[in-house]
Design goal:
heterodimer, A: mainly beta, Methylamine Dehydrogenase, Chain H, 4-stranded antiparallel β-sheet, globular, B: Ubiquitin-like (UB roll)
C-alpha cells in the first residue's frame, strides 16, 4: 500500500519535517524550524490532520507550546502554556513540557501535556490555553509519587499520556518515579499499576510505585494489551490483568532488556519492536557492544529476533530516546528511529533492513510518522 | 518610563527591537507591561511562582535584581540578559 509519510522531528536544537514520496523512497527536508529551541515533542492531531504542536523551551528561556493550525505553514505561541497555579503548595513551576497527546477522537480540540517536574495539563482549545489537572497535580500522594530529587538527568518527568481509544475517561500515565498510573475518570482519581515491575534501584525491588517507566504503548489493534519498556526491563500486561510479565527475559543475555522505547505493530497485537541500550555497570546508554539493532517479537514477547541489516556492524554507539522510535500504518509497516547522534534511519520492510535517510542533525528527541496531508 | 534592554533570545517577541520602553514600579510590573505589548514574553523570563528563571539575569542599572518585587526607579534602566546555559 503506497503512502507518502511526513516525519515530524524534534531535536535538542530545533525541529524539522521530512517528507517522502508515495513509496517512502525519496525524502525531502523542511527546516530547521525554531533553530536553537529544545523541542521535546512534535505531534500532529490525527483528528483534523492540520493542527501541530511542539513542546519547546530554550537553554535560557522558560517553556512554551508552539502551535500551527495549517499543517506547519505558520506557527504561533500558545496564549497560556502549561503552568502550575501561582502559589502552588509545592512551589512547582514547569521547567519544560515533555509529552503532548491529542485527546480522544470524541473530544476534538482536547490535548494533554506532561511536564517536568511531573504535572498533567489539559487544553480544550487545540493547545491555545492549558489548565492543570488537579486530580493528579494536587493528589495527596503527588510528592511521594514525584519527589523533587527523583528523576532523570534533565529532571523528573511525566513522560507519557495514553488514552484508551474506547473510553475517553480511561487513561494511563508513564512516569519516571511512580511508574504507570491509571485513571478511569479522566484524571479525577489515580492509582499505581506496577505489579511485578522491578526496581533495581530501590531497597524493595517490587514497590507499589517508584518505577521508571520509560515508555508504554497500547497495541493499536488491541488496547487491552500494554507494552512497557521500563528502566529495568521489557514488560507486557494484558488487561483486565494487573500483573506485568517481564518478557525481556527472552532477550539475548549479552544485549539485555534495557532501553527507552517500544513500538507495537499497527495491526498485529503480538508484534512489537524495542531498541536495546547498554544498561550495564555505569549505564553507557549506547547500542550494546557498539552494534546498533532493533529487536522484534512476533509472539507477544516469548522470543525476540535481531534486526540489524543496514546498521553499522561495529563502532555504532548511538541510542534512541523515548519519543524517537515510531511506526507508520502502511503495509508493510514502516519503522523510523531518530538517534542521539542526529541520524534518522528507516525500514520499509518491518525491520528486515534499514537505511539512513538523514544525518548531521542535532540530538533527536522525537520522531512522529504521520500520513502526508 | 523605564528603558528596557532586550536580549537576543527575546527579540522574536519585540519585532527585533533590542531597546524598548515600559512602565512599572517593580521588575514584575515592568514585565507585565512588556507582556501586554509582547504577549508571552514574561513567562519565558519569570516562572509561575514569580521567580526569575535560572538562566535569565535581570539588572537595574548596575545592580542585579533577584526578585520580581524589586523596585524600579522611574527613568531608570532594566536590562535582561540570557545567562550561561550550557551547550
Amino acid at each position: 500500500m503506497a503512502q507518502a509519510i511526513q516525519l515530524l522531528v524534534g531535536t535538542r536544537k530545533g525541529a524539522w519535517i521530512y517528507r517522502s514520496d508515495q513509496h517512502r523512497q525519496a525524502w525531502s527536508v523542511e527546516g530547521p524550524m525554531f533553530l536553537g529551541q529544545i523541542v521535546n515533542h512534535f505531534v500532529r492531531d490525527p483528528r483534523d490532520g492540520r493542527t501541530m504542536l511542539m513542546a519547546a523551551s530554550t537553554g535560557h528561556l522558560g517553556p512554551t507550546i508552539l502551535r500551527s493550525v495549517d499543517g506547519g505553514a505558520t506557527w504561533a505561541e500558545a496564549k497560556r502554556p502549561p503552568a502550575f497555579p501561582k502559589g502552588d503548595p509545592h512551589g512547582r513551576s514547569v521547567d519544560h513540557s515533555f509529552w503532548l497527546e491529542p485527546g480522544h477522537a470524541d473530544e476534538p480540540g482536547v490535548w494533554w501535556a506532561g511536564s517536568s517536574p511531573p504535572g498533567l495539563f489539559r487544553s480544550a482549545d487545540g493547545g491555545e490555553t492549558w489548565d492543570g489537572v488537579e486530580g493528579l497535580n494536587q493528589h495527596p500522594q503527588v510528592m511521594a509519587w514525584f519527589p523533587p530529587e527523583g528523576g532523570t538527568p534533565d529532571g523528573a518527568i511525566l513522560n507519557q499520556i495514553l488514552i484508551d481509544p474506547r473510553d475517553a475517561r480511561h487513561m494511563y500515565l508513564a512516569t519516571c518515579s511512580a511508574g504507570v498510573l491509571e485513571t478511569r475518570d479522566q484524571g479525577a482519581t489515580w492509582r499505581p499499576l506496577n505489579q511485578n515491575v522491578r526496581c533495581d534501584f530501590l531497597p524493595d525491588p517490587y514497590p507499589e510505585f517508584g518505577q521508571d517507566s520509560h515508555y508504554v504503548a497500547l497495541a493499536p489493534s488491541d488496547p487491552d494489551r500494554l507494552w512497557q519498556q521500563n528502566h529495568c526491563g521489557i514488560y507486557r500486561l494484558d488487561r483486565p490483568g494487573e500483573r506485568w510479565e517481564r518478557i525481556g527475559e527472552a532477550m539475548p543475555k549479552d544485549v539485555g532488556d534495557i532501553g527507552f522505547t517500544i513500538v507495537p505493530h499497527a495491526r498485529d497485537r503480538d508484534t512489537a519492536w524495542v531498541w536495546p541500550m547498554d544498561g550495564t555497570e555505569v549505564w553507557p546508554r549506547t547500542s550494546p557492544g557498539g552494534r546498533p539493532a532493533a529487536y522484534r517479537t512476533r509472539d507477544a514477547g516469548a522470543s525476540w529476533e535481531r534486526q540489524d541489516r543496514g546498521f553499522p556492524a561495529e563502532q555504532g554507539w548511538f541510542t534512541v530516546k523515548r519519543q524517537a522510535f515510531c511506526a507508520d500504518r502502511a503495509d508493510p509497516l514502516g519503522l523510523y528511529i531518530g538517534t542521539t547522534g542526529g541520524e534518522i534511519w528507516m525500514s520499509g520492510d518491518e525491520g528486515a533492513s534499514w537505511r539512513q535517510i538523514a544525518a548531521h542533525l542535532p540530538e533527536i528527541y522525537s520522531v512522529a510518522a504521520v500520513e502526508a496531508a | 518610563m523605564i528603558r528596557v534592554s532586550i536580549p537576543s533570545q527575546l527579540i522574536a517577541y519585540t519585532d527585533g527591537a533590542t531597546r524598548v520602553e515600559a512602565e512599572g514600579a517593580t521588575v514584575g510590573g515592568v514585565l507585565d507591561d512588556l507582556d501586554r505589548r509582547y504577549p508571552g514574553l514574561k513567562f519565558r523570563v519569570i516562572d509561575e511562582q514569580d521567580r526569575i528563571r535560572r538562566h535569565v539575569r535581570i539588572f537595574l542599572g548596575q545592580d542585579e535584581a533577584r526578585r520580581t518585587d524589586a523596585a524600579v526607579r522611574d527613568g531608570g534602566e532594566l536590562l535582561i540578559f540570557g545567562a550561561l546555559s550550557g551547550g
